[in-house]
């Protein structure tokens, strides 16, 4: 594989110090790249006998064939391990510049196993790979560590990923942070890295990425950059960023739920006063991240953390939002999970389930600036109640008891957004997701029409808003009614389609925000065309979609092998009651458990999974080119 792919998989054993390399080609021929190959590497090496924070777990980083090229958004690296949050699949994606640099050094994937007997970091410079002492770095935060590494290595162009003190302490929702602010946030991958005594990975490459036809590849990439810049959505994202876009979305959805309290938020004023610039990852024409410089600290924010740290905490103070956001970035914690855990604690306090005796004397009231900041600090430090909450929602609820489990908002252990209930397709996508987060199965039309439904009870206006999406819904799901977030019709087909469509970037190494997911024009035809030009090998759209489906089946098989069934594809019980019935425009929105079960049946049938167990059928796995996975599950009596 002389073109596009780096050519090698790098394996590092921190227990023995062994470093070895093997060709990528046998894996790429089957699963293309990135998340697909990562998933097979995990399935092959980490069985049910290995616990997430044990040395036998693998921490796997994977790039795709387009990572590090001039293709728009070619920055993504998939990160995968057995998750301490879900107990099975732990997936996150990281942008920035680190993944391209790994490709420039000649590696498509990095697999880390074992545990060092002291803090270490990996130093990778082309063919030279070293395990070095990180004892001088241990305890440094995610802002300090990249600079310290560049100084020690003597190269300011080194790209790094690292954990902060939260990852060192194995806070269950700690993160892996790149040096430019992009974060592998969900499913506790920072805790896995910390469990291995691995502080950071520093990479410098000089080999670049080669294309079979450089001129044609360059021309094709430039054409796509121009195409993106010609769209209205590009101008909206480039001008306003994702934060403001999500503010508009959340206002509408919370209005659908009868909770328009956050009209007091003044995001526009906050941005005008404090926004420093927009920041973009490698190869990004959009620059969707907001960079702020204010007295509470400098940093970047993309989208969800803004909503989670304001709406979910009933916190209208954007300076508090920003202070917690910077704390999370500095110390390496997932801001969305942090917000969810604090919001749950606040609800327990407001309901009298816990008292100040449980919270170290702190009144944990909704919207309390003192409570939000102090709870965040305690969790990061694992101090008293923070130590309990640092082990995640499910563990904390089991230890607190007293009915606290009733108020959890999670799927498979992963905190989930409070805005999901009005959106039936997103609800299904969340329930069946491998990680408890349904972002890849999201139905964009549901968010789009929610902007209208949340602002009016006039059915004529709602139907007019739906018209924009109905033709797409008919083509994708077989029914124009699938575009309506209040109806079940076509939702299973829509979710499957969106999982496949939005999973393409995770296979080839391209940011999903460049695609139809965010209203931008990059699609599978562009990806297949440029991979074919760049690699010199014919590549079809069918081949890329096949790799996405293979990955979905492979991750589902891993879940099944870990003991999961359709019984785990659920939503919190309170989601079925959360919408206020007096809201006329939303009276048909609330999803019942029985309706979710019927939608799951439809989804499993479309995927080729057993309706009774949720496991991929043997013929499905064999048809997908995964005969060894089918044989493994059959040997275990799981299919």
Automatic annotation (TrEMBL):
SMART domains documented for this protein: AFOR_N (SM00790)
CC cofactor: tungstopterin; [4Fe-4S] cluster
The keyword Metal-binding belongs to this UniProt entry's keyword annotation: yes
Protein keywords: 4Fe-4S, Iron, Iron-sulfur, Metal-binding, Oxidoreductase
Keyword Cytoplasm on entry: no
Coiled-coil residues: none
Domain called Aldehyde ferredoxin oxidoreductase N-terminal: residue spans: 5-207
InterPro entries named among the record's database cross-references: Ald_Fedxn_OxRdtase_dom2, Ald_Fedxn_OxRdtase_dom3, Ald_Fedxn_OxRdtase_N, Ald_Fedxn_OxRdtase_N_sf, OxRdtase_Ald_Fedxn_C, Tungsten_al_ferr_oxy-like_C, W-dependent_AOR
Pfam families associated with the record: AFOR_C, AFOR_N
GO molecular function: 4 iron, 4 sulfur cluster binding; electron transfer activity; metal ion binding; oxidoreductase activity, acting on the aldehyde or oxo group of donors, iron-sulfur protein as acceptor
Family: Belongs to the AOR/FOR family.
Record protein name field: Aldehyde ferredoxin oxidoreductase N-terminal domain-containing protein
Native species: Tectimicrobiota bacterium
């Amino acid at each position: 594989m002389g073109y596009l792919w780096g050519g090698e998989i790098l394996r590092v054993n921190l227990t023995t110090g062994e470093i070895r390399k093997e060709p990528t080609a046998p894996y790429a021929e089957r699963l293309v790249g990135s998340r697909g190959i990562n998933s097979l590497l995990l399935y092959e090496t980490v069985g049910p006998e290995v616990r997430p924070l044990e040395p036998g777990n693998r921490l796997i980083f994977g790039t795709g064939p387009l990572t590090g090229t001039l293709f728009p958004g070619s920055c993504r690296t998939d990160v995968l391990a057995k998750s301490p949050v879900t107990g099975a699949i732990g997936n996150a994606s990281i942008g920035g510049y680190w993944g391209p640099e790994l490709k420039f050094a000649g590696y498509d994937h990095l697999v880390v196993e074992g545990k060092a007997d002291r803090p270490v970091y990996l130093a990778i410079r082309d063919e030279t790979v070293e395990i070095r002492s990180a004892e001088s770095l241990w305890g440094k935060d995610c802002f300090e560590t990249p600079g310290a590494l560049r100084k020690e290595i003597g190269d300011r162009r080194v790209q790094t990923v690292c954990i902060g003190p939260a990852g060192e302490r194995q806070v269950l929702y700690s993160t892996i942070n790149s040096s430019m602010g992009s974060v592998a946030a969900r499913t506790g991958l920072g805790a896995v890295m910390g469990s291995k005594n691995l502080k950071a990975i520093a990479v410098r490459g000089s080999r670049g990425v080669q294309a079979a036809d450089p001129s044609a590849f360059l021309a094709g990439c430039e054409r796509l950059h121009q195409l993106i810049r010609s769209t209205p959505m590009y101008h909206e994202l480039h001008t306003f960023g994702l934060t403001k876009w999500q503010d508009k979305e959340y206002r509408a959805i919370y209005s659908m739920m009868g909770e328009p309290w956050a009209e007091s938020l003044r995001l526009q004023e906050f941005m005008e006063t404090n926004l420093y610039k927009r920041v973009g990852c490698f190869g990004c024409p959009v620059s969707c991240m907001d960079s702020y410089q204010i007295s509470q600290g400098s940093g970047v924010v993309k989208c969800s953390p803004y909503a989670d740290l304001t709406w979910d905490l009933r916190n209208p103070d954007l300076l508090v939002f920003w202070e917690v956001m910077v704390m999370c970035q500095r110390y390496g914690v997932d801001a969305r999970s942090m917000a969810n855990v604090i919001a749950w604690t606040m609800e327990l306090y407001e309901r009298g389930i816990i008292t100040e005796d449980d919270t170290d004397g702190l009144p944990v009231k909704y919207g309390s600036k003192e409570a939000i900041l102090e709870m965040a600090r305690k969790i990061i430090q694992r101090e008293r109640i923070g130590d309990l909450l640092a082990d995640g929602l499910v563990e904390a609820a089991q230890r607190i008891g007293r009915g606290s489990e009733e108020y959890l908002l999670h799927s498979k252990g992963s905190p989930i957004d409070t805005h999901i209930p009005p959106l039936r397709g997103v609800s299904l996508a969340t329930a069946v997701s491998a990680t408890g987060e349904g972002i890849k199965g999201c139905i964009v039309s549901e968010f789009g029409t929610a902007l209208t439904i949340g602002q009016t009870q006039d059915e004529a206006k709602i139907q007019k808003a739906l018209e924009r999406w109905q033709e797409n819904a008919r083509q994708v799901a077989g029914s124009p009614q699938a575009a309506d977030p209040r109806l079940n019709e076509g939702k299973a087909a829509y979710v499957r389609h969106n999982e496949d469509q939005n999973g393409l970037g995770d296979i080839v190494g391209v940011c999903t925000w460049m695609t139809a997911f965010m209203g931008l024009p990059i699609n599978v035809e562009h990806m297949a065309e440029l991979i074919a030009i760049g690699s010199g090998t014919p590549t079809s759209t069918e081949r890329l979609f096949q790799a996405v489906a293979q990955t979905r089946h492979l991750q589902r098989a891993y879940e099944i092998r870990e003991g999961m069934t359709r019984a785990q594809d659920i939503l919190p019980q309170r989601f079925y009651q959360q919408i206020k019935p007096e809201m006329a425009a939303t009276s048909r929105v609330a999803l019942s458990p029985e309706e979710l079960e019927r939608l799951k049946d439809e989804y499993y049938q479309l995927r080729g999974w057993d309706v009774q167990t949720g496991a991929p059928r043997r013929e499905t796995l064999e048809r997908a080119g995964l005969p060894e996975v089918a044989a493994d599950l059959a040997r275990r009596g799981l299919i």
